[in-house]
Design goal:
Layout lengths: L3 H8 L4 H14 L4 H7 L5 H13 L5 H9 L4 H14 L5 H7 L5 H14 L4 H10 L2 H14 L5 H7 L5 H13 L11
Helix pairs in contact: 1-2, 2-4, 3-4, 4-6, 5-6, 6-8, 7-8, 8-10, 9-10, 10-12, 11-12
C-alpha cells in the first residue's frame, strides 16, 4: 500500500502521469490527506501549488472557503484557473461574489472558468450577474451575459432586452442567445 508521503511525493514529482494518479489516490484517502494538501498549497513553487489545489478541489472533503483565496489572491493565473474549476465542481452559493469578481480577472481564462462556475451554481447567481451586465467592465459584462444565457432565468430578460440596444456585437449575441433560450425568438430591430 502506498503511504500518504509517497502519494505527496508523486503529486509533486513533476511527472504529470504520476501526479494525476496521486490525485485519485489522495482523494480516496479522504480527510486524512487534507492537512498535507493544505500545507502544499502554501508552496512558493507554482507547479506544486497547482497540483495541491487540483487534488484539494477534487476531494469531496474540500470546503469552498479553502478554494476562494486561490481564486482571488494567488498571483499565478493557472492557480486561479484551477480554483475556478474546483469551484464549478462545488457549485456552492457562498462562492458567488468571488466568482463574480473573477469575471474581471486579468487572465481571460480565469474569467471564462468563473462564468462556467456561476452557470453551475445557477439561479442563485442571477442577481449578481445582472448587476455585472448593468455596471461591469466590458469583458466581465460579456461573460456575465453568457452565463445568464446559459442559466436561462426569466429575471434576466429585462437586462438582455436593454443590451440589445447597445453597439457591442458580443453583448448583442449573448443577449439574443439568452432570449432565444428563454423562448423569445423574436427579431429585434433598432428604431431609426
Amino acid at each position: 500500500m502506498t503511504t500518504l508521503q509517497e502519494l505527496l511525493n508523486d503529486l509533486t514529482s513533476g511527472d504529470e502521469t504520476r501526479a494525476e494518479n496521486a490525485v485519485t489516490a489522495l482523494t480516496a484517502l479522504g480527510e486524512r490527506a487534507i492537512p498535507s494538501l493544505l500545507e502544499l498549497t502554501r508552496s512558493p513553487d507554482v507547479d506544486i501549488r497547482w497540483w495541491a489545489v487540483r487534488a484539494l478541489a477534487q476531494s469531496p472533503h474540500c470546503r469552498t472557503e479553502w478554494l476562494i483565496p486561490f481564486l482571488t489572491e494567488d498571483p499565478a493565473p493557472e492557480i486561479r484557473q484551477c480554483a475556478a474549476l474546483g469551484l464549478a465542481v462545488k457549485a456552492d452559493e457562498s462562492a458567488i461574489q468571488p466568482l463574480v469578481q473573477a469575471l474581471s480577472d486579468a487572465d481571460g481564462m480565469v474569467g471564462s472558468l468563473a462564468a462556467n462556475a456561476l452557470v453551475k451554481i445557477g439561479s442563485a447567481a442571477v442577481p449578481a450577474l445582472i448587476e455585472v451586465v448593468k455596471a461591469g467592465a466590458q469583458a466581465a459584462r460579456i461573460l456575465a451575459l453568457r452565463a445568464l444565457a446559459e442559466i436561462k432565468d426569466q429575471r434576466a430578460i429585462p437586462v438582455m432586452m436593454k443590451v440589445m440596444e447597445e453597439d457591442s456585437s458580443l453583448l448583442q449575441y449573448w443577449a439574443q442567445e439568452g432570449l432565444e433560450r428563454l423562448g423569445l425568438n423574436m427579431i429585434y430591430l433598432k428604431p431609426e
